[in-house]
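WP5 quarterly update. Target: VanZ family protein. Source organism: Vogesella amnigena. Length: 364 aa.
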Amino acid sequence: MTALSSFSPRHHVALYAALINAVIIAFLSLYPFSGWSYSGRPLLEFLSYPLPYYSRIFDNAANVLIYIPYGFSLALLLHPRWLSFVLAIVLAALTSFSMEFLQELLPSRIASNLDILCNIGGALIGAALAVSSWFRRYWHGLWQWRRQHFVIDSAADYGLLVMGVWFLTQLNPALPLFGVVAYPQGLPQPYLSPIDNPRLFLFLVEAGGAASNMLAVNLLLSSFLQRKGDGARAVLWIVLLAWLLKLFAAGALLKPFAFFQWVNPHLVTGLAAGFLLSWLLVRCSRLMQTLLAMLALAAAQTAAVLWPLSEVQADFLSLFRWPYGHLHNMNALVDFLTDLWPVMALACLLFSSSQQLRQQRQAG
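Structure tokens (predicted):
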């Protein structure tokens, strides 16, 4: 049995990846989910629009790209390969049609038959990659690498999927590294600090939130490693990849003056503390790392709740190069994934801890 055929049915990671992609597609297609109304025009009229209708290069490219991972993950669900390929195209086409149909009821969106063709084209590319012999060879090598460096538990597969979602949350360069949503805009007035020193309180919340976020992400991944000695290296790779991703997003989206707009001493202090704590704690037992990751995750969410500026965020759209509509949708998606990620991470960590405890009972 090949690595591909043993992977999907047993752990269902491809199914969850497809569901995550479907959620992202639905969010981007239907946001802002308001103003639903029926114009009175035939609901399927958009299918007969002359091509190209409302065609923009950016929109067409986005419609292709967003369906590539969707078609890819759908094509991993079944065997034989030809059946999985057909399933991926059919489901992608149905998804695209459903989104365009619902857009007919949203005044702020424009349904388009060209969008459906672009979506199917993207799904076709993704599905073709998934069932190709080249990918099967590549996947076998990737699976061997995964078995070499990560524990065999199915929770590790979900953990890697959750980490992929976390990297997506770093795509908004206006938000600080590791997803700390904080800007030093000044305190809302009147403001009553829980402690006598408001500045100290802000420092503790902002730096603590940064440290907790970094610690949670690092320990989540390191808790699935086969060897403790790989933990420090994993922390370095996570920080480096997150930093490079943030720089890439900033270079592509932000105006030059805003490149490091989010950097301040509080965040730098918190990130440095989180990095040092991660470096030390990755040497703990796997179960201890899992429990500490859950505590860090809870601390990060607590810091976000306590942050007094969260409800008075200014409009930062002037920092960006992108036009308003595309930027608004992307930021909304990143914010949605940022809110969703802690829930996914907590579920993954709970599942992992239950597997570890069960293994310990069986070994004892």
